[in-house]
Amino acid sequence: MSGRKTTQWWLSYFENRGISESVIAEYIPYIRKLQKNRVPVIFEFEHLSRLLGLRGDVLAKIVNSPESFSRKFSIPKRRGGKREIISPYPSLLHCQKWIYRHILQDRPVSASAHGFTKGRSIVTNAANHLSQKVLLKMDLENFFPSIPINWVVNYFSSLGYSNNVAFYLSAMCCYEKKLSQGSATSPCLSNLLLAGLDERFLRLSKKYGLTYSRYADDLTFSGAYIPVKYVGIVSSIVDSYGLTVNGEKTRLHTKPGQRIVTGLSVAGEALRLPRATKRKLRQEVHFIRKFGFLSHVSKTKIGNAYYLESLIGKLGFWLQVEPTNEFANESFVQMRILQKSLER
User: Does the pTM of the predicted model rise above 0.85?
Assistant: First the structure.
């Protein structure tokens, strides 16, 4: 059974199966609310299992113990420490992708949110803060796991789903009753669930004449003047939502100098790659040109089998940020030619 049927289709379906008028009268308002919110109709557990194409006993195991259908591991953070990742097994990943495609994908998100959103990126996020006198950067600590399952249940309930169905959907999106770092639904859900927080910061920023944007857990404020007390105001609002600011990553830039927002320099009137990033890319290209690709890889003991592809990707991104940069353009073309010659 499809989750996207008209009310008339459901009426005919119920009548053809001899469903009583009293039961139909209860179902129709439920159906209409879900249709109004443009999400699939899901009545109960068995219906959900059919929509997902899973046996009921398999879905029951996933809902009751999503931790048993995930693998936990850690990866090193760029600036030290480790980040815990939860990787769902294929059966759970299938459920998460279905929830994302059929329920979450087209839900509207805050205009301030630039991460995990079609048409927005680190580039659009950083562009909001070009040439500002003062820049404040703050970070939400332990981002995904700080969002509890009850937020997710409440969100699915707000779309019109019954309490049971909202719980089934939420359980498959969480790990140990928290939003999962690695779930196919977590990026989108985080934006949807933090829409209220974004709205609070947007109103606060307008009051102080500032610009606000968020990329995942990175909060950025900029303008002509940001009082020191503003940091405390933002922190208190974050605390009121049950989240925590990572004080070690809070930076208030009041003096001229390099300003980096989501990895891009916003110090001038146009976005630029940071000087250190450009220097490293220039150096890599220089060594390849001077010694040859294979010799460079051998001398520097590069073990990444996709090193050249990675370098081409970085050069391509440089061009995306700075389309007229001659070095980036020439290097990108040269590395693509090199790539094709190595593939022969």
Answer: yes
